[in-house]
Structures are given as C-alpha cells and as structure tokens.
Amino acid sequence: AQTVTQSQPEMSVQEAETVTLSCTYDTSESDYYLFWYKQPPSRQMILVIRQEAYKQQNATENRFSVNFQKAAKSFSLKISDSQLGDAAMYFCVYGQNFVFGPGTRLSVLP
Amino acid sequence: NAGVMQNPRHLVRRRGQEARLRCSPMKGHSHVYWYRQLPEEGLKFMVYLQKENIIDESGMPKERFSAEFPKEGPSILRIQQVVRGDSAAYFCASSPKASGGFADTQYFGPGTRLTVL
Q: How many percent of chain B have pLDDT more than 90?
C-alpha cells in the first residue's frame, strides 16, 4: 500500500520569508498525481498545487512551487514571500487512492 | 459554480442514534468521495461512489456505516447506532472524472463535524 510521510509536524516562517515543507511517498506505480492541500482554521480543504508524475517540470502556482524528485520519491512544497494567510495545516497527498500524509502545521510570524 | 456542499455543518447525536450526512457535488461532477478526519490527523478515505454505484468502499467500517449516491439528490453517508469513537469531521469531495485509483483532482466540501455525546 502507498504511504505518505511528512517528517515535519510543525514549521514556522517569518512573514515575507521562504519556507519548504517536505514530503516523501512510497509507491510502485510509474504514473500518478501528487497534490498539496492546505487546511486553514476554517477546516476547508483547499487545493494548493498539483503535479503529474510523468511531467519533469516542477509545478508552480504563484508563490507556491514544488521540487518533485521522482527517483527519490520526494515532493516538497516551497512557499515564497510567506503571508499571514498561509498559516494552515498542509497535507501532501498521493493521488492514486488519495492517500494523505499526516500534515505539517505551518505558522507564519509577523 | 457552487462548490461542494455539505450539510449539516455540525451534528450532535447521542450514543445509539443515527447520523445522516449529506453531500452535493459540484455541478458537472459525478464522482463523490467520503473521508473522515480525527483531530490533528490527515483525512482517511472511506468510500468512493458514482451515481447509483459504490466503486470502492475499502475504507468503510464493516458495520454501522453505509453510503449511497442516488440518481437524484445528494450523496448520503449514514452511521447507525453511533458511538463516541465516531466523533470526527467527515469530508466529502467530488471530481469530474476518475480513472482507476481516482487520480483526478478532488474538490472538498467544508465538512460535517459530528459529535457523539
């Protein structure tokens, strides 16, 4: 069965700085999707970014980008110019069967 | 285009009662997924449905839990004879299409928080 590991239960970043959240996963599949979702205090689950495994180019969405290393099965999320509204739980998700990682709680310090 | 809708947002039940959670997918989406989230944990998959069909219920407890997605109306997650351990947030998601392993992007509703007294 696929597993997703997020080794950082909590992270903090200063406003306007950059932070990287790590994620590793285990799979024997060659084609799949990976996602990062954020869950703010409202508990609404919000899609941050999506990566298709067959694409070598790393996905970017405004201030959010990923470093996808397929051979290493690593999928980290970089948040640039952090804003107070970025404070949330961030979940790395393996797209086949939507397996969630345990989450990283990100705090943004003013 | 309205997002995924869930109701009620909060539901309180006493032990032994039934809980019914409703989910209306986004317009044009015919695939619905239910997840459970315990405090400080990620979401755990429960069941994947298409209209009138259960595609994958590998995450559903074998007893007391059932789900349906009728031809008309919302998807329903039903929990019979609730126990305190059922207290959790239940999220519904929908997607426009899915291949094996439901790889497509899922859009989540706001969740229903179930409290069992």
A: 70
